[in-house]
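User: Look at the shape:
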Amino acid sequence: MLKNLILEDFIDKLSSKSPAPGGGSAASLSAALASSLTSMVYNLTIGKKSYDLLEEDVKKSIENGLKTENENKLQFLDYIDKDADAFLSLMSAFHLPKSSEEEIKHRQEKITEKTIAALEVPLNLAEKAFGVYDNVLLASKYGNLNAVSDAGVAALMLQAAIEGAILNVKINLSSIKDDKYKKDIMEKCEFILSEGIKKKEEILKEVNKKIE
């Protein structure tokens, strides 16, 4: 499994002529890094004197956020393989026989099926990554001041993951003929992109206010 490779081996595989892993897997890793950084800020916050002074509901949110991001980082790592597997499965569909009308029809059906699967993996990744923003914002507002820059890096990595995932959605969506399906997916993508940028900027503003 790709997620179990040591970092140097993963980078070597990513830079090779192998078609997978690619941008989708890289986006997944970016999301995992964002969750990990958020968890780190939380871990460096809980138990400190400044943490003890926080309202109980904020403390609870931080504790819940830590639990959530510890789970998210592992799920994002799974997406590294999910994305590669979906792409390779699509490539296999293109190699199906097409010697008869029946085979051509079956091949096209499989290509459409695997294309949808290949775009829904990064779409799900983008949606899940977008959900991490609330925890990053919380970390930027109440996290250990010595680690607040890490919350900023988490926001940058998160938006990179979202935008990278959506590029992978779009490249597969271009092959789909169902106009309504395409429209619905594009609307989801545009919402995640635009709202993600707003959330990233809000976090960076909070971070910069504390480090300048």
User: Anything to note?
Assistant: The domain at 23-211 is CATH 1.20.120.680 (Four Helix Bundle (Hemerythrin (Met), subunit A)). The mean pLDDT is 95.
